Amino acid sequence: MENQVSKDGMNRRDFLKAGGMSTLAITLGSTGVLTLGSKAFADTTNNPTSGFGGYGPLVQDPNGILDLPKGFHYKIISEEGGQLTNGGKIPGAFDGMAAFEGPNNTTILVRNHELSPGAANPVIGTKPYDAAAAGGTTALVVSPNRNVIKEYVTSSGTIRNCAGGATPWGTWLTCEETRSTTHGYVFEVDPQQPENEMSRTPIKEMGRFSHEACAIDPATGYVYLTEDASPSYFYRFIPNDTTQQPGALQKGGKLYAAAIEEVAGPSASTFKTGQTFKIVWKELDPHFCREDAKAQGCIEFKKLEGAFFQAGVFWFDDSSAGEKNLGRIYRYIPGTNTLELFYEATDAKDMESPDNIAMTPWGDLWFVEDGAGDDRLMGITPEGKIYPFAHNRLNGSEMTGPTFSPNGNTLFVNIQSPGRTFAIWGPFARSNSARAREMSYAVPSKNFAPQVSSKVAEFAESQGMSILEAAAFERHGLKI
């Protein structure tokens, strides 16, 4: 994708990289001390038209497909089994997506297809990585009035392309949710150069495992990855080439997994023992990364899913963790090397089996569900409110791939099966980078903050940790 230079001389790539917070900015907020809470947004928190606090109750769709708040509209822009621009069939199992700026105010939407060999509607490309595999990616060029101008295959020959992640330089990392001799990798796809050599070359040093999602810290170029397996590990890839341009990740790097260890502190006193517990990163053999992570005592999650990086924080979720197996949401802050348990669900009406996640342009965290009940698109505000935005009334299939157009006016989201991609528009709140930064250090409200004992709270204080960090450590086996 070409860099478009603005009037002030900053090109699009530089602007995207500038979105990462500095280490100083996130260090101050890591304990929640600077949270603005509801006071900063007291006039808008409960106003459905503002978006700060949700958009009010959902209105039942007379077509029985997708319930949305009053004032919002949807259009189905792509359906499984329909026709690609070249006359081929639109593949099935719609999953992770990202939206990029295209020419003439268009949006280029990149979409994963979580397909296994033998699927009814496979991805059929001209240059597959493995001709026997059914998965891959497609792209849609969408006009400003939300019509599809072109729809085409961008990569093929992979297996179970579940989630993935957008790069700051305008490409898509598609992840294989499988693990076999020749599969289980990440591939970089450029929607403006479909099926090129890069799109069918696995980034092997990024690990062979059941990949789910990934996201990149634009301040460093480091890639953070989740794994959809039981147990799951939380990975970090440090590229040899951090220039952040197409193909740089294929020049290799080192893969690590997160662990909790006791390390020596800088000094001891009558108040502190001189020992402290921190996240450490264990280097792995990328071909046998799961075995290495287990042998080195890395943190074992139950079943990791979606991921998103924004305003200095890597957000990710564990879909079936917690006392009631309803799921957890974590945030990892690279600038302070801090892992926090942000939300642990206790009631299915608020969250059940979170999957793909995203940040809205106005600073709320959104997640889609893949649970046994009704599947929804839900939001969490920095002020501590949970609200529904969309409900799949059509069937019991999961919703997937929420992503906003570059101008923030359109939400794209899927129902996985039978595959449908929706464009949704209406009175969305304006872009608000300050709220996005607040979400990075907000303390969850008491109604959904992780519950901790007085012993854990005392431990947090003695260690100089936030309660959320101590909760993450305690949930993952640290003897407190």
How do the helices and strands line up, and which of them pair or pack?
Elements: H1 12-17, H2 23-29, E1 58-59, E2 66-69, E3 73-79, E4 94-101, E5 107-113, E6 135-142, E7 148-158, E8 161-166, E9 172-176, E10 186-189, E11 211-216, E12 223-227, E13 235-239, E14 253-264, E15 275-284, H3 289-295, E16 304-310, E17 313-318, E18 328-333, E19 338-344, E20 354-359, E21 365-369, E22 376-380, E23 386-392, E24 399-404, E25 411-415, E26 420-425, H4 433-441, H5 454-463, H6 467-475
Antiparallel strand pairs: 1-2, 2-23, 3-26, 4-5, 5-6, 6-7, 8-9, 9-10, 11-12, 12-13, 13-14, 14-15, 16-17, 17-18, 18-19, 20-21, 21-22, 22-23, 24-25, 25-26
Helix pairs in contact: 5-6
Uncertain segments are 1-47, 266-273
Please, how many helices?
A: 6
Radius of gyration over alpha carbons?
21 Å
Chain-averaged pLDDT: 88
- End-to-end distance: 50 Å
Shape estimate: globular
Query: Helix- and strand-based class?
Result: mainly beta
Strand content: 25-35%
Reported for the largest beta sheet, the result is:
6 strands, antiparallel
Record field, number of beta strands: 26
In spatial order, strands of the major sheet run 1-2-23-22-21-20
| Share in helix | 10-25%
